[in-house]
C-alpha cells in the first residue's frame, strides 16, 4: 500500500483527518493558503484535542506535492476552483482526488480540470471544530462513505488503519443529498440566529423553517431521481441536530469570523436544481439570500 496522501485544505476536517492518518503511520502532506494554519502545522503538527501534534508536511506550493497519488479535497466549496488548479499541477496522471466537501457541484468543477477518471466523491458525517491554527476538536462519532472507483483501494486502506469507519457504495448521490438536506436545514439557520445546532429544536418558528427547508430539498432530490436513505427528511435533520446539539455549525463559524460561507453550494444549488426541474423552493431561496446579506462579523 502507498501510505502517503495529500490533503487539500488546512481547516477543521482537514486537520482532523491529518492528525488521525498521521498517527496511524500515513505520510500526510497538507496543501493550503492560510498562512497561520500552515505555520502552526509546520511547527507543532496536526493537533487533535489534547493529544500531541502529529507530524505533517504543510505547504502552499503545489510543486512541493508533485506526483501525489491520492488526494482528499477538504476546502470550502467556494475554494474548489483554486484547489482544482493546484491539483492539476501536482496530482499524478494515475492519481485520484476524492472530494469530501459540502454542497453540490464540487466534483464537476474538479472533473473539468482533472478529468472524470481522476475524481471521485465521498461523504463525511464526522464533525470537527477548529480551535485555532492546526488545533481541532473532534465533534463525535461519524463515518465516511466513498463512491466506488477502481483506484480507491489504497485510500480505503489508509482510512481503515486510522480507525475511520469507511463504507464504499456504488452510487454516493443518496448520501450526498441526505447530507445536503441536513446542511441546508441546519447550517443557515444557526448562522442567521447565531445559535448552536440543538437550539433550533427548542425554537418552534426555527424548527418549522427547518422542516420546510428539508422538505423542499427532498422534493428536488426526488425530482432528480435520487433515492434518499430516509423517507422522512425532517426526522433525519432532527436526529442530527439532537446528536450535534452543542456543535457550532461550519456556516456559523464562517459568519463569526467574517469569512465567506458555503450557502451558494448548499441552499443556492438547491434553488437552481429546483428551478431546472420546476420544483418551487421559496424557503431555500429566502434563506440563501438572508445568509448572503449577513454583514461583517458577529458574536455567538
Can you give a write-up of this model?
- This protein has helices at 12-23, 35-44, 80-90, 106-114, 153-161, 173-193, 204-223, 233-243, 250-256, 264-277, 282-292, and strands spanning 4-8, 27-31, 47-48, 57-59, 68-73, 91-99, 119-124, 128-132, 135-138, 144-147, 166-169.
- It folds into two domains: 4-169, Rossmann fold; 173-292, N-(1-d-carboxylethyl)-l-norvaline Dehydrogenase, domain 2 (Orthogonal Bundle).
- The chain has eleven helices and eleven strands.
- The relative contact order is 0.12.
- The radius of gyration is 18 Å and the shape is globular.
- With 300 residues, the protein is α/β, with parallel strands linked by helices.
- Helix 3 packs parallel to helix 4, helix 6 packs antiparallel against helix 7 (204-223) and helix 6 runs parallel beside helix 9 (250-256).
Query: Taking Cα atoms only, what radius of gyration do you get, to the nearest Å?
Result: 18 Å
Poorly predicted ranges (pLDDT <50, ≥5 residues)? none
Our count of helices gives: 11
CATH class of the largest domain: Alpha Beta
Q: What name is given to the CATH topology of the largest domain? A: Rossmann fold
Q: Which sheet architecture does the biggest sheet show?
A: 8 strands, mixed
Distance between the termini: 45 Å
Strand content: 15-25%
Overall geometry comes to globular
- The name of the CATH architecture of the largest domain is 3-Layer(aba) Sandwich
Number of domains in the coordinates? 2
* Largest sheet: spatial strand order: 4-2-1-5-6-7-10-11
What is the assembly state of the chains in this entry?
single chain
Instruction: Determine the structural class based on helices, strands and strand pairing.
Output: alpha/beta
Average predicted confidence as pLDDT: 94
